[in-house]
Amino acid sequence: MRFVWAVVAFVIAAVMIGAGIAQRTVFHGPSETSATVQTDGTTAYTLVDGALLTSVPGAQTLRVEGDGAVFAAYARTADAQAWLADVPYTAVTVDGEGVVQTTAVQPTVTASSAAAAGRSPVDSDLWLDEYEQTGTLSATLQLPREMSVLVASDGTAPAPANISVTWPIDDSTPWAGPLIVGGGIVLLAGLVLYLLGIRHVRRSRRPRRKGLPLPVTEPISTVDGEGSARGVISESPGRGASRGRSRGGRRALVAVPALGMSVALLAGCSADAWPRVAAPESPSPSPTVIVPEGQFPPAVTESQAQRIVSRVSSTVAEADAALDASAAAARLSGPALAERETSYKLRAAITDRPALPAIPAEPVQIVLPQTTGTWPRTLMTVVESADAATPTTTIMMMTQQTPWDAYKASYVGNLEASTNLPELAAPYVGATQVPPDSNFLVLAPEDVAAAYADIINNGQNSASYATFDTANDLLLAAIQDNKTKRTDELNQTGAGTAEISFSASAGPAAPIALATLDTGAIVAVNVYESDTAKPTNPDAVIKLDNNPAVKALTGVDQSATGFTTTYSDQVFFYVPSQGSDDQIRLLGYRSSLLEAKVSP
């Protein structure tokens, strides 16, 4: 019966081990699937739609082959299509049956077609990420359906024609390991049964003696000579023990092949040959941003904003070093560019003139993008300086005018250490841009600069004085200190023959306002401060002995009609919502010399 059970165990073991091996060999499916895209190579750009990228679950491995430069970037499909709106391109997608389709798309706008010729796709602020290689490019992505991939060469040459997308397939065999191990155990059990059966047969075949009367026993002498004489044969003490060990060794050696076979089979089994106790977190395409239903997506993601700030910082730093206003204009506009242009003029004329504070690149502490699907787009950031010697916190308002433009900082200011920003939306939600004439705030954004200028001019007599938190306004205090200083200087040098007057007005730059969570807004405005020094005596002149900056800007060192000096203030306010008891409070500012001219 032992042999029968042994044979049954052998059969079961063979089936289990064979099934486990078959799962890892003949029945083992492919580990990936792919889709190949072959374009005609007539357009400079190819847009691979998210419908194709997500037609198979899992991460996407993009492979592009070309003859020279190969470029790929991914972005929201709507943003990529907007960037391609003025050029022809090839669109790649899939139909309802999963068949890859390519379509030639013609330009839908003509406004920038002339500039589009040879436009490089590299470093566009619309891309969430980009890749560049020569010849062959391969990148592993994890994109949701609303993202697409742009493939190009250099923007002039035809885009690479050979594109493929590969997805991994779950080819794990979780029962292969248990089957092989279980088969090995059953095989071992069968071997044990087989050996027990052999032992039983051998014992049953031994001769059996009949019982006889035992002779009378006598004492056996322990002396060798006496024992030999009596015919007693003594057995070597070690022989019996040796025989016993040899029998046990043979049994152990019989079991070794079974264990060795199982170990050899398991050696080729990877982790995917075993059941998973806990399901791993497999990556799946997910939106880069989470947008409330019915709301436009934020203009940029947090990583995009960090990249944009870094580019603004490096570009302005290079312009500062070269005193190149044209280079600065690539990333600055409005009041932020105007103050840099004046600074470069002064630094070129005055060797010891200090440079304006640099724009830090990191760490980016706050990102507040506008929620919009059109242009222009606005982005607010707060960046701390990484320089321990000059710790500053910079707040910026940046704008992208068209899909083809870079984000440019139009307002740049410094936050005070004691500044408490209002509660802001998360970067992946974004904020709406408040219209300049909005009546949902205690003061419309377009009226903030004029109201603040009125306070500078009239102080407590201003009709807007109670609307602003003037008690904690550091800019107002700095402006008053500057007025006192300028008046004292003129009285010392003019000896009663000159007078100085001050005035403030709203600057020409349009305000920018982004909503806060409490329905208020952060508003950036531009204010001009001017002081005019004139002689009161017809025979007197105003000399610029102690004012090299005005001298450098006007090109003269004295004037009988006087001088007018203008400062530009970039001011950031928190403006509460209509009906709130809160006052408008200053968040940060930057004040710098803008221009100087001889009075008429």
Provide a brief overview of the structure.
By secondary structure, this protein is an alpha+beta fold. The protein has 13 helices and 19 strands.
Describe this structure in words.
It is a single chain. The chain is an alpha+beta fold and 600 residues long. The protein has four domains: 1-29 and 171-199 and 257-275, no CATH class; 32-168; 294-429, Nuclear Transport Factor 2, Chain: A, CATH 3.10.450; 434-600, no CATH class. 31% of the residues lie in helices and 26% in strands. It has 13 helices and 19 strands. The strands form three sheets. Strands 9, 10, 11, 12, 13, 14, 15, 18 and 19 form a nine-stranded antiparallel beta sheet that branches. Strands 1, 2, 3, 4, 5, 6, 7 and 8 form an eight-stranded mixed beta sheet that branches. Strand 11 (393-400) and strand 12 (408-415) form a beta hairpin. The N and C termini lie far apart (125 Å).
